[in-house]
Amino acid sequence: MRARTKSTPPPLTTFELKRDAYGFAVRPQHLQRYREYANIYKEEEEERSDRWKSFLDRQAEFARQLHPDNSLVLEVNKINSKEENGVQRETAAKEARVHKIQIWAQIRPSLGYIEQTMSLRVKKKKDFSDNVLDVVGNGTHLQSIEEAEPTEESDDEFYDVEKNDTVQDLPSSDGGGNAEFNSSLANGASEDVFNPWKEEVENLVRGGLPMAFRGELWQAFVGVRARRVEGYYEYVTNDETKACNGVASEKWKGQIEKDLPRTFPGHPALDEDGRNALRRLLTAYARHNPSVGYCQAMNFFAALFLLLMPEENAFWTLTGIIDDYFDGYFSEEMIECQVDQLVLEDLVRERFRKLVNHLDYLGVQIAWVAGPWFLSIFMNMLPWESVLRIWDVLLYDGNRVMLFRTALALMELYGPAIVTTKDAGDAVTLLQSLTSSTFDSSQLVLTACMGYQAVNETKLQELRNKHRPSVIAAMEERARVLGLKGDCELDLPDLNEQQVMWLKVELCKLLEEKRSAVVRAEELETALMEMVKQDNRRQLSAKVVERLEQEVSELHRALADKHEQERAVLQVLMRVEQEQKVTEDARRVAEQDAAAQKCATHAVQEKYEEAMALLAQMENRAVMAETMLEATLQYQASQLKLQQHSSSSPR
Question: Rounded CA gap, 622 and 645, in Å?
């Protein structure tokens, strides 16, 4: 495995990296951090793609050895080669552009064995399937899933992985090329044939699904092919369904229309056709399950599925998620969601005593933060790479265990920072800010899966069974209190008529005050959760804007100081240039004076040399004159002596 190193990225520009590799918008305050992890994501994607391709190759080889004469294996190999060349994807994309209402596509045959394995754990609802087939065939009234399902089924039956349902329970509408495999299971083959891959597949899923396989693997995990009833989606998307179900089934239409433009705004895949597909998908589920209908957060689930798979596949995936994985979460009472919040609170109190004591001191309930986490399945709460990694494990497990493990992992990662806060608002804001910057998806998934293995479905069911009666009792009490109207009949034979009337009035006042207090408490709790889930982003944005304004003002001040410094420097430069000009002029004058002086000196030197030459000549002449004078004097002296001598001697 390659070493994961974070390289220092170049500075971000204004228009860089506003969307991640999946097309989702990256928050401005997280652009720099996302840029740091972009290369890590790319390396991890390459590694997991190689691991999955190797696994699928070995699985195909195993299937070839198990069925050496099976024509299905040869067909799988042919299609795999086409997949590698991108032929099948291009064809599917062309078909997606042609079909305007719904699209159904089989997953690639190389994933067929995984699909069959996961389909074994899907609880078959034969009464519902028969009812749906009657509806599709006869065009009669569409019943809700509550009317079609047996009332004595338990929640555990939906996730019984150990049961080996035979293939005769699987829908036969789209058996296709897997008929031989289905018949082999029907003849006695069990899930044991896949046990050699169970641990490896689990490790692969925890390591993340490749982008190219994620949509199809999600369908395989949910058991879309096993859930599908042919013709049902066409029925629930038909406008005549409204007339069959009555006006009540369309009561969510207005809210759906409001939420369509709010769903991943600006995403390149959600253009006009994408919005229409999302509208059809949400309306189809509302008609499919009127007791749940439509509630906020479903639009994000459905849009995510539409980005990864065809429209009808997305419908059956959404159906499996809402009806099975999160059964009771999005109903009007939201009983299971309330139960899970109490279960999470028990787990947090058990493992993070210091954090819980601090939150209790601040008056913060864990449900204020964890409620939006669970209802949105961390969507729009964590970076998208982390969200998709959590969904990979959650859909593979077939239950909600990963929700609790991820919440505990986040508490472990950010609990030390939370205990430093001083008030409830800061604690909630800081936790949401920290979770929204959890870009290290591998660390989060590893901490959740390996650090909290003791948090399993068995333990969660025990805690749910512990808290569910109290939640149901509270709901019944609330409904009873809210249902009380006006008169309160009391059988008090020992009281006179005036006392009875007074007690009735007082009791009605107390009940009204209690009802008002309960309603007010619910309104405050709802308002607070909405504030944490929605308005808190505005608070964070306001803080970001305030910080940006401060930075801008500081930049303005720095710019003004810089301009002042530039002006001072310009003045200094002008003075220096003037001084340099004066100096240059003085230099030129001095050079001219020096040249003149040099010329004068040269002339004087020449005159001096001429004078010295004349002086030397005069000196030579003087010497010669002196010599001649001396010689003349000597001659005259000698002549005088001769004359004197001749005059004195006799001749």
Answer: 34
**Contact call for residues 32 and 8 (beta carbons, < 8 A):** no
Question: Where is mean pLDDT largest: 70-79, 359-368, 534-543?
Answer: 359-368
What is the distance, to the nearest Å, from the Cα of residue 505 to the centroid of all Cα atoms in its chain?
A: 57
The least confident of 27-41, 142-156, 447-461, 529-543 is 142-156
Q: Helix or strand or coil: residue 122?
A: coil
- Encoded tokens for 259: 């939420």
Can you give the pLDDT at residue 4? 47
Question: First and final CA of the chain: distance in angstroms?
Answer: 153
pLDDT of residue 193 exceeding 80: no
Q: Is 489 helix (H, G, I), strand (E, B) or coil?
A: coil
Of 242-256, 405-419, 517-531, where does mean pLDDT reach its minimum? 517-531
**pLDDT of 103 strictly over 80:** no
Burial (Cβ within 10 Å: 0-12, 13-18, ≥19) of residue 311: buried
Q: Which range has the worst mean pLDDT, 41-55, 333-347, 517-531?
A: 517-531
Q: Which amino acid would we find at residue 215?
A: G
What would the two tokens of residue 470 be? 């109290």
Cα separation, 472 vs 467, whole angstroms: 9
Give the Cα separation of 31 and 294 in Å (integer).
Answer: 33
Map tokens 């709790």 to a residue. 525
Query: DSSP secondary structure string, 250-303?
Result: GTTHHHHHHHTTTSSTT-TT-SHHHHHHHHHHHHHHHHH-TTT---TTHHHHHH
Alpha helices (runs of H) in 309-440, residue ranges in sequence order: 311-320, 335-351, 353-362, 366-376, 384-397, 401-418, 424-435
CA 459 to chain centre: 31
d(CA 220, CA 224): 6
What's phi and psi for 581, nearest 5 deg?
A: -65, -45
Structure tokens, 301: 């689930």
pLDDT in the model for residue 484: 60
User: pTM for this structure?
Assistant: 0.64
What is residue 535's DSSP assignment? Answer: I
Tell me if 278 sits within 8 A of 263, measured CB to CB.
yes
Backbone angles phi, psi at 25, to 5 degrees: -70, 140
pLDDT of 40 reads 92
Tally of CA atoms within 13 A in the half-sphere of 179 that contains its CB: 7
| 160 has a pLDDT exceeding 90 | no
Contact criterion met (CB below 8 Å) for 300 and 380: yes
Collect all residues with Cβ–Cβ distance below 8 Å to 501 and sequence separation of at least 6.
Answer: none
Residues 6 or more apart in contact with residue 456 via CB below 8 angstroms = 401
pLDDT at 312 over 90: yes
Which tokens sit at 458? 């068995």
Contact 243, 336 (CB under 8 A): no
| Identity at 162, one-letter amino acid code | E
What is the percent of the chain with per-residue pLDDT over 70, rounded to a whole number?
A: 69
Q: How far apart are CA 354 and CA 360, in angstroms?
A: 10
CA dihedral angle for residue 265, residue 269, residue 272, residue 274, rounded to 10 degrees? -100
Cβ-contact 282, 296 below 8 angstroms: no
For residues 289 and 172, the model is more confident at 289
